[in-house]
Here is the input.
Amino acid sequence: MDGAQGGLLMTEGPAVDTTVTLMPTTNGHGTAWHTGTVRSWTAGAAGLVVTSHVAATPQVVEELDGQRVWVSTDAGDGDEVTPHAVFQAVAQAHRDDELALTGVMLLASETRRAAVRVPGSLPVHLTTPEGVADLRTVDYSRDGMRVEGATDVPEHADVEIALELGDGLEVHARGEVLRIDEASGEAVVRFVELEEDAAVALERSVLTELARQSRD
Here is the structure.
């Protein structure tokens, strides 16, 4: 699989002032993620190697200077379809309020989802008034997931979620079953209540898995 899986390469890149999320690739003692805005974006001919300058607060610039980070662009609002890019980069302080980011694209596709998702089969337990369903994910993000084998889960049900991310880490959330495909048995579940620590763990898991898949 190449570095821009399942989508369109962003040779032109996002517009100036597009919001980006910046997350260190390793766990640290600072804030889990930060935001900035694009000032410039340059991609190689194939769209895989990206150099971007991102405006951020002096505190963010100081904290991320010299670190390897994941950079994720905002996918837009509503029904608008916009390119959503994710790349792994080394951050360097360019000015007091600006980071220079150079790295390799992991994902560049058109999506209607606000959060980056990744294919992955993880154990998940959905608790409903009818009992507990032990299922597996088809894909997941910090906003929700698609699960298989959900034919017995009630559509539009409120559910308690326990999702196993691996290495003994399990995240918990409240969710809603948005729809069920009776033919495939797959269900789309949206997270409606998720603690910040769980959201950070999910985002890190998604980006780590994207990076792994891009190397395969």
Observations:
- The helical segments are 58-64, 196-215.
- Residues 1-11 have pLDDT under 50 and may be disordered.
